[in-house]
Amino acid sequence: MNEILKKLLEVFIMDEFKDIRWKQRFENFNKAYKLLEKYSTKTKLSELEQAGIIQFFEMTFELGWKVLKDYLESDGYIVKSPRETIKQAFQNEIINDGHIWMDALSVRNLTTHTYDENLANKMVNDIVNVYFPELKKMHDRLEKEV
Predict the structure, then answer these.
(1) Half-sphere exposure of 48 (CA within 13 A, CB side)
(2) pTM
(3) 1 band by pLDDT with thresholds 50, 70 and 90
(4) Which terminal Cβ of the chain has fewer Cβ within 10 Å, N or C?
């Protein structure tokens, strides 16, 4: 009987940890999100500001999919990769547009390996006008649950 109680306690503690974990990760995501939000509204960006938006996007997106992963795990799902996480988050209606998230994943991977002025201009435009609005929807939805 003691062994059963011990197992139940372990499960309860793990569930509580998973619930706390996504909320803690959300706090870090929120900090990066706020920086991206602040600079995404600027017009006529310098090269340095464009580079900053791209960097803030990389951080925000990375933390964003990890928040989704932790959130899903707190609900009992097992997801291992960004793609699995995005697919499951879309199926669970945590995010609105799985295709945009998959595109954002590809762009995030590309930003870390490529620099070209024309590509940077396009990336910044897409970050501001396509990916940030989706990050905002996810942010606003999860912020209500924190």
Answers:
(1) 0
(2) 0.84
(3) low
(4) N
